[in-house]
Write a structure and sequence with these properties.
Jelly Rolls; about 25% helix; alpha/beta; Immunoglobulin-like
Length: about 575
């Protein structure tokens, strides 16, 4: 590409670091609120090492630069909104996703060793409207990396934009080093992900068919990918033939949107009904779709039904036990996954009333009643780097605590309700979750953008990052059809059944991730191809015109899969 005045914003840093007489980057920064700014140099900044599961410089699209050690300090802060501010050197373009990168730190009398505070990097347009940024939970004495993003979704770009850095309480000094704002290089990321996907999801296959078959026409068809992609369904949606048609053709698994939740099955104490859940499960059985169990409990207080909130401690404990017995024994062996207590990073309703062990007890008792399903944690914002309550590190701490208490945690659910996603931010979060050794599922994916082309790009970003990551074992979309979506501007299929641009992109990716091969058996009686993991059928046409078939599976493995075919 030949860069012009109009396209230079795609490669430049929008925070220009000018030099003062002492050689330190400071020009352009101004105090925001009550604080004073000064410039300093850290000759050996202590930053976290590259994550062990992150891409190496040999295969990453853009290796992370080393921190310079030069930083601006905001001291004498009087409140959480006090900090640093500067105008971007160039206004962001409309509908372009930008990455916010750099390092932040804490010091001063209010930042004792080991204490942690959320630092917020916020980008606002000229009218004061926030359009994104990022959040870092920084530890005093160490540098924390910013993994933020933003986008202006208006048709017209703003005249200007400013970046603010603030967040810690009064008395904590705030440091900012090497802040950068730049447009995401989607082309380079796509090239990297295709290479990574080929390595993670595909394998060389050698079919041994015998010398007598040399020269025979052969065709290999993939009939199932081992990486499932599913969607949520509800009682209303399955009455729509267009919904059913798209769901049955393009999704592998299902999850009930609300019909299995406690507030739905027992809205009034003692009046328990699973009729709607049973109807949906029967629908999935007819179409051969496995169903995830969502969810046994929900930890966020405002979604707990009023009669449960009114119970005292002993009554609540008895109600929890009753819910477990009622649901888990009824569907014993029925679900491959359960989400046991939804959104524990954002709610603690049961823990606050029944003690710290109640979450692990829910897992233990579920496993005792039904040992077959994998038991998942499930939460939101973990992949977005914008929520101090839902950092990957805090999610890992939650899982570790549950395991120490005897909970058989079998998987990590990352919901994926995303806005202006950035690939390397998502990948970084998945890398940090992968250290648990547990499978990760994207459990409630939707991307919201009024512009359908932008929505299609956003959806592709998340799908490709998840599919290319070795820790991820499946994806569930939280709806796909207009009128049956929890979020607006997130559908793939219009109300009349027509695919929009996001829908076409999704179908195209599913086709891209399906392997077919055809040709002739070589003189040694072998046929070689490289295909995605999953189930296949080989079709061999003999010299007499007879068609022979055989099924086989391609699983994970470093070396070629060699199969003796009995045809």
């Amino acid at each position: 590409m030949a860069f012009t005045e109009e396209t230079t914003h795609l490669v430049m840093n929008h925070v220009e670091h000018c030099e003062d007489g002492g050689g330190l980057a400071v020009a352009g920064w101004t105090p925001s609120g009550s604080c004073t700014l000064s410039v300093h140099d850290d000759p050996a900044p202590e930053t976290p090492p590259p994550h062990p599961l992150s891409a190496t410089e040999d295969d990453a699209d853009e290796p992370r630069p080393r921190p310079s050690g030069r930083y601006v300090l905001a001291a004498h802060r009087a409140g959480e909104r006090d900090g640093l501010c500067r105008e971007l050197s160039r206004a962001p373009a409309a509908k372009v996703t930008y990455r916010v990168a750099g390092w932040v730190g804490l010091q001063g009398a209010g930042a004792a060793d080991g204490c942690c505070h959320a630092v917020r990097v916020e980008v606002c347009t000229d009218d004061g409207r926030p359009v994104g940024g990022g959040v870092v939970v920084a530890e005093a004495g160490k540098w924390g990396e910013i993994m933020g993003s933003f986008r202006v979704d208006d048709d017209e770009p703003p005249r200007c934009a400013k970046v603010f850095v603030h967040g810690p309480p009064a008395g904590v000094d705030l440091k900012v080093m090497d802040l950068q704002v730049f447009a995401v290089n989607k082309i380079a990321r796509l090239r990297h992900l295709r290479k990574k996907t080929d390595k993670v999801r595909k394998r060389d296959v050698v079919l041994k068919l015998g010398r007598r078959t040399g020269g025979t026409a052969i065709r290999v068809v993939q009939v199932e990918n081992s990486f499932p992609i599913g969607a949520c369904i509800n009682k209303t949606a399955i009455q729509n033939p267009a919904f059913v048609d798209f769901f049955t053709k393009h999704f592998d698994w299902a999850v009930l949107e609300n019909e299995l939740k406690w507030y739905y099955t027992e809205a009034v104490q003692g009046q328990v009904s699973y009729s709607d859940a049973d109807e949906l499960i029967a629908f999935c059985d007819r179409h051969g779709k496995p169903v995830r169990g969502h969810c046994i409990f929900w930890a966020v207080e405002n979604v707990v039904q009023p009669w449960v909130r009114a119970l005292n401690g002993d009554q609540l404990r008895a109600a929890v036990e009753g819910r477990l017995r009622s649901l888990v024994t009824r569907y014993g062996g029925r679900f491959p996954h359960y989400e046991v207590n939804n959104e524990m990073l954002h709610g603690a309703f049961f823990q606050q009333r029944l003690g710290d062990d109640i979450n692990a007890r829910m897992f233990r008792e579920t496993a005792q009643m039904d040992p077959s399903p994998a038991l998942f944690v499930n939460d939101y914002n973990v992949e977005s780097a914008n929520d101090p309550n839902a950092t990957p590190e805090r999610y890992v701490e939650l899982v570790t605590d549950l395991q120490k208490r005897g909970a058989a945690v079998g998987g990590i659910g990352v919901q994926g309700h995303v806005t202006h996603p950035v690939g390397d931010v998502i990948c970084d979060a998945l890398d940090r979750l992968a250290v648990t050794g547990l499978p990760v599922w994207i459990t409630e994916l939707d991307v919201s953008a009024a512009d359908e082309a932008v929505r299609a790009d956003d959806l592709e970003i998340v799908l490709r990052e998840a599919f290319a990551h070795p820790a991820v074992e499946g994806i569930m979309l939280w709806g796909f059809m207009q009128g049956n979506m929890w979020r607006s501007h997130a559908h793939l299929v219009d109300a009349d059944g027509k695919l929009n641009e996001a829908g076409h992109r999704y179908v195209g990716l599913r086709q891209e991730w399906t392997s077919h091969a055809r040709g002739q058996v070589d003189g040694s009686g072998h046929f070689k191809f490289r295909g995605f993991h999953g189930k296949y059928v080989v079709q061999l046409t003999t010299g007499a015109g007879e068609m022979k078939h055989q099924q086989f599976d391609v699983g994970k493995g470093d070396g070629p899969l060699v199969l003796d075919m009995d045809l």
